[in-house]
Amino acid sequence: MSETNSAADVAAPHRYTAAMAADIEARWQDFWDAEGTYEAPNPTGDLAGDPELAAKPKKFIMDMFPYPSGAGLHVGHPLGYIATDVYARHQRMSGHNVLHTLGFDAFGLPAEQYAVQTGTHPRISTEANIENMTAQLRRLGLGHDKRRSFATIESEYYKWTQWIFLQIFNSWYDTDADRARPIAELVAQFESGERATPDGRDWSALSAAERADVLSDHRLAYASDAPVNWSPGLGTVLANEEVTADGRSERGNFPVFKAKLRQWNMRITAYADRLLNDLDGLDWPEAIKLQQRNWIGRSEGARVDFPVDGAGSITVFTTRQDTLFGATYMVLAPEHELVERIIPAAWPDGTHPVWTGGHATPAEAVTSYRKQAAAKSDVERQAEAKDKTGVFTGAYATNPVSGEQIPVFIADYVLMGYGTGAIMAVPAHDARDFAFARAFELPMRCVVEPSDDRGTDASTWEDAFGSYEAKLVNSANDEISLDGLGVVEAKARITDWLKEHGVGEGTVNFRLRDWLFSRQRYWGEPFPIVYDEEGIAHPLPESMLPLELPEVDDYSPRTFDPDDADTQPETPLSRNADWVNVTLDLGDGSGPKKYRRETNTMPNWAGSCWYELRYLDPNNSEKLVDPAIEQYWMGPREGQPTGGVDLYVGGAEHAVLHLLYARFWSKVLHDLGHVSSAEPFHKLYNQGMIQAFVYRDSRGIAVPAAEVEERDGAYYHEGEKVSRVLGKMGKSLKNAVTPDEICGEYGADTLRLYEMAMGPLDVSRPWDTRAVVGQYRLLQRLWRNIVDEESGEVTVVDTEPGEDTLRALHKAIDGVGGDMAGMRFNTAIAKVTELNNHLTKAGGPLPRPVAEALVLLVAPLAPHIAEELWRRLGHTESVVHQDFPVADPAYVVDETVTCVVQIKGKVRARLEISPSITDAELEALALADPAVVAALDGAGIRKVIVRAPKLVNIVPA
To answer: How far apart are CA 762 and CA 215, in angstroms?
Structure first.
């Protein structure tokens, strides 16, 4: 028998037990739903016409979108949800109009994989998971405005996801105005001649396909043939962020290869500077800001063009343009688009045998090496310790400052994901270039004077020399000399020279790449795009939205041998010919025409890029969001210059995925005038993780944690010794504890208190089911202080509390209020516990003012028992909307404080004095104290140092 159901617990008929908690909690949850207790009103037009709402400050509180897993919740999942609920309840009781709700991010791979395995439509399994998770969350008593909840799979929702995609597709970034503008304005510039076409022809002279290509180079959403991460084992391409460091898919752990495929992209790079700069105005953890800054990766340097005969130029970005005279070869990423254009039919005369890799022709060498490179992850390709590999392309480029012909290689240590996918190699001053040059017997030229005694003949060096403080050497031609200059001055001078000669210019580069926005999947938002017979992409008119997912016979993308990189995706949607091939009138004046639908779907990130806006106005079928409502909840205001959600709580793992993507969408919508907020989330808080012990047998396989026994400091499962480590909680690790179990054993209020009391919210902490009973006992003592366990009658009395109780009460009110506002819920619970213990020890019935204040203090943390006690205390209105108690400063300040009196550094007396005592008064008291007089023993006093009210230090003569 568990401790909660012991005889002592059930002996008294009105004792707070798990059964009573279950009854109380179910009744009040039904009441809250029926009364719409947590419904937050929206403004209707001008706030001036709604004085009651205008008088209240607002607070928009959000949790990160949950995915409705088939496994349901374990006790680690609700940590953030309970925390935001406690905070929201406190804010509501502090006079705020609080918007707090929760929806479901329901598209994605897990449901589709389940559909592939079972044949169950993803919608069926997803909706069942949502129903289960909704019931679990409801049992926790979360105060959500349920009118505002939704799932991203609802067509009424993804209609607007598709609409936003069209806004992005129909926009371009005007660098002069530093904002997005409608694509129609760019077309007007081309038509008027204000902006020249790439080849100088009149806009009217371009074919429809040529115009489409020109606009595609500017659109914020565009399709292109580009190097992508191709996972044959999943049958889909992946974003960089979905590939692990060892070059495998984050989901499924399949090999990932580089391939060139036509995919949709978002031009997030156009916003790189704004995404970087606007971080300064956000109230986010510095660690998350740093991750975003590093991911965006801004660096200043120069663009340099290296001419290649018959193939234009190879453009590089470098932050060390001062070393240009030391460039003795070039390297392209194997995927670089110029490779095919520059390779000759045969090896040039005198080609070094090491450079060819033993291949008969450059084309053969390049093809072979590309296949080899495609099988490696970016991390493997950039590893410093590994041997450098590569192959000569057969082409030479011209160093623009020296005129020297330098060989062009491809090598896997150069990536397309940074800079231009090409480097000028300065082997004397770069460790990777040095290693490559040694391996391929390439020349090295010292252009930065070493600070040690190695000399300037780089061919004799054992490693590269890099420095930003040394002087330049061997860096001159007939027009410019950098010799003797420092790095900073040399950079400025060579950058000016490059610009004057039309072979480069100073520029800024970003590590950030455009966002790959296609998935070869079924369970995602369809693109509102169709292609005509010339292959030109056309947006669907808004009247045709939502474009709903069709039925298909097979949910699987075509998968391949995971190790076969030479494959192409085949999507489930492409198999529904009746849906793909359509005749439509797009309303553009061309009448009905035959089109082919886009058969990729959007990634699972799409729906979570804007969901905060749908919470504001969830039933609006006419526009994305009512402007007045968006302005009220998310608009810029004092302290929030870019607007956004007031508090956003979730895991730190989304630092450079969801958070960056959502910021990008928000900025585009802001630029186009659809929203007033330029940022989606003003304040971000990362909660920690609830961990659990994982037990593994000798094979390394997890065993059920609940079946493990501890004996003499060791752990056993079915008689076999097992290992124990602290890690994640989850079904696969066989250590998951469900909230349903704890609610059934103790009640939801106990679970809420325990999760908040475990430690600071932003740190991880281990789960211990045995410790839950401590918070259960706190609720029992709270109940017992107000309700007689035998009769069920309220025991409070209408008398005034004594001085000691008033001081304990108001100190608790002051401390709990501050802790709630600062999200220090563990210390708030400690203060409530201290107050409740004080009242228990005081004995006798509680004075009504104390009992009511105690219930109000507990209400945000344990809302069900608080609601029940509030009603039993005679109140007819819900505790949810009562005012949070306010401390009386007179009772918060200690009545007396202890002052230490020292003579020659030794404590001679302790005085109990008023906190407001003056220095003069305190000195007089100290000198008159008998213990001090005795210690001085008639000696004179040279100096008295007073630090009222805590210290007096006496220095004898």
So the answer is: 46
Q: Name the CA radius of gyration of the chain, rounded.
A: 35
CA-nearest of 207, 576, 284, 245 to 380 is 245
The span from the CA of 381 to the CA of 231, in Å, is: 18
d(Cα 534, Cα 79) in Å, to the nearest integer?
A: 53
- pLDDT tens string 5-25: 544 455 789 999 999 999 999
Phi, psi for 502 (deg, rounded to 5): 70, 25
Query: Looking only at Cα atoms, what is the longest distance across the chain?
Result: 113
Residue that wins the pLDDT comparison between 475 and 558? 475
Contacts made by residues 581-584, CB under 8 angstroms, sequence distance 24+ = 582/530, 584/530, 584/540, 584/544
Residue 627 has pLDDT above 80, yes or no: yes
Q: How far is Cα 198 from Cα 205, in angstroms, rounded to an integer?
A: 12
Domain 894-956 bears CATH identifier 3.60.110.10: no
Cβ 949 vs Cβ 914: under 8 Å: yes
Which of 424, 363, 437, 353 minimizes the C-alpha distance to 393? 363
Task: Tell me the pLDDT tens digit for each residue of 515-538.
Answer: 999 988 899 999 999 999 999 999
Is the pLDDT score of 4 beyond 50? no
Fold of 298-510: Isoleucyl-tRNA Synthetase; domain 2 (3.90.740)
The whole-angstrom separation of Cα 252 and Cα 233 is: 8
More confident residue, 469 or 48: 469
Residues 6+ apart with CB under 8 A from 427: 326, 328, 329, 433, 434, 436, 437, 438, 442, 444, 458, 464
Of 731 and 722, the structure prediction assigns the larger pLDDT to 722
| Separation of alpha carbons 622 and 628, rounded Å | 14
Q: Name residues whose C-beta falls within 8 Å of residue 449's C-beta, 6 or more positions apart in sequence.
A: 456, 470, 471, 472, 473
Q: Are 496 and 96 in contact (CB under 8 A)?
A: no
708: part of which helix (H) or strand (E)?
none
Domain boundaries in the chain? Answer: 173-218, 298-510, 690-727, 739-891, 894-956
CATH of domain 739-891: 1.10.730.10
Torsions phi, psi for 337 (to 5 deg): -65, -20
Confirm if 858 and 749 have CB atoms less than 8 A apart. Answer: no
The continuous run of DSSP H or E covering 371 comes out as helix 362-374
Structure tokens belonging to residue 873: 């205390």
Please list, in sequence order, all residues whose beta carbon lies within 8 angstroms of the beta carbon of residue 180, skipping any fewer than 6 positions away: 171, 172, 173, 174, 220, 270, 667, 668, 671, 672
Contacts of 365 (CB under 8 A, 6+ apart): 356, 357, 359, 391, 392
Q: In what order do the strands lie in the sheet with 515-516?
A: 236-238, 221-231, 257-266, 515-516
Q: Do domains 298-510 and 739-891 have the same CATH topology?
A: no
Three-state DSSP at 53 gives helix
User: What pLDDT sits at residue 48?
Assistant: 63
CB of 685 within 8 A of CB of 823? yes
pLDDT tens digits, one per residue of 350-378 = 999 999 999 999 999 999 999 888 877 66
CA quadruple 532, 538, 544, 548: dihedral sign: positive
- Residue-wise pLDDT for 749-799, tens only, equals 999 999 999 999 999 999 999 999 999 999 999 999 999 999 999 999 999
Which tokens hold the place of 313? Answer: 């130029």
DSSP secondary structure letters along 91-129 = HHHTT-EEEE---B---SHHHHHHHHHH---HHHHHHHH
CB–CB of 908/901 below 8 Å?
yes
Residue 245 is classified by DSSP as T
Average pLDDT over residues 112-140: 93
Q: What is the DSSP string of 372-434?
A: HHHTS-HHHHH-SSSPP--EEEEEEEE-TTT--EEEEEE-TTS-TTSTTSEEEE-GGG-HHHH
